Amino acid sequence: MSRVHMENITCIACGKESPYRYWDMIDPMMNQETKDKVLSGELFTFTCKHCGAKRRVTYDTIYQEVAKGRTFHLVTSEESYMQAVNIYADRDSHSSPVLAHEIVRIVLSQNQLAEKIRIFDEGLDDRIVEIIKAYFLSQLYEQEQDIQVDEVLFFVGDQNQYEIAFLSQDGNHRSISFSREMYDGIKKDIGGKLPPIHQELEVDLEIAMEYLKD
Question: pTM of this prediction?
């Protein structure tokens, strides 16, 4: 079950306070709309009731789909990161809130949270997706050495094709598509060398580079 609490937020546009709903725990089982709002970012958007100004609100939360055995823990500070690591590090112990066989991921941004949801909803292994992202990113840097890339994310396109988006703060975004056949081929070649998927806590580009070294 989802858990929320209300707090007032001061609008940076008009300086007046408006109520905002913080989601301490997100469980979309009973409401698909909640999940859709996580994916779109609407769930984390504050709207001033006085002037209508909007902005994203950054905070820690836990997204959990119990029936699918998935927990994604969004952390926004070094302190909360270490707390999350300590919670999930020994999942075999009886004191752990998450069973050892469940998939748990610690994520560092709302974009990463949405990405993990998309990846697992497609039935994909996020480690293979990160390896594909690392491959295409290295290709992009070879072609354009001066390009700035601030974030690399997996998306499902309008035609249900898989896409990797290279996002930049300067607005010079790029994207590239890849096929399920490419994914399956890489998984066949590398998947057997990877540890069980539930043993990972963080899966990102950095760990993908480590996989490729091995």
Answer: 0.92
